[in-house]
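Student: I would love a firmer grasp of how sequence relates to backbone shape in proteins. Thank you; the sequence and its tokens follow:
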Amino acid sequence: MRKRILGTILAAALVVTSAVSVFAAGSRTTQVTLVGESAASYQVSEGTAENFASTQAVAPQVVEQILQVNEGTLTLPTLVQQLKDVIANPTEGQTELNMTAEEVDALTQEVEGKSMVTQFFDLIPVNGGVQTEDGKYIATISVPSLTEAMTNVKILHFSTERLVWEIIDPTDVNYTNKQITAEFQDLSPVTVIADVDESKAAGTDTTGTGIAPKTGVDSAWGVYAAGAVVLLGAAGAMFVIGRKRA
């Protein structure tokens, strides 16, 4: 009997562990990977202050904004508005961006209405990367959160080298394989953005907070609760049996 109860406890533990694995595997930036030739030619890293160290050295305010977007405390429209304020009223100590007011206005139009498919992540070349004939880097990334509900897919990139924000049009968006290919003049923090058809994207956060489509974390609590009930029940049964035998 004790073996059966122990088996029940182990099974319940496995259920809970499996639930944690399933619901942790969402569409966050850490899920972005490199594919094909790009896998050996680039490195993708989660958007953290440590990983953005090279950008931090030349544009600390930009890194702060990026991290706030990733945390969900700053939206892309607000970030762009802050760029306008910096361009219009530069102050001492702020990062001097090489952008005109017209370029920021164009960026505003590109970002308007779009949602973030990924958080910001760092993309850097390894051993020179893969370059086109005109010297641009070409990279293909796998984005598990990409769906056909997302159209007009773009890449928002901050150039650490040129100190500009820019929108990059992918050369290919493969919905079947969930892959995006794009060419970059230089590489540093990037995020994938797109227009989202809400009628086709149930459970998708379209607020532009930096959060990709929801991963089902909320519904996971039901699984955890069920697992906990099984564990408590099994433990209680073992306790009662132990008491009786004593």
Observations:
- Confidence is low (pLDDT under 50) at residues 8-30, 204-232.
- Residues 217-245 form the longest helix (29 residues).
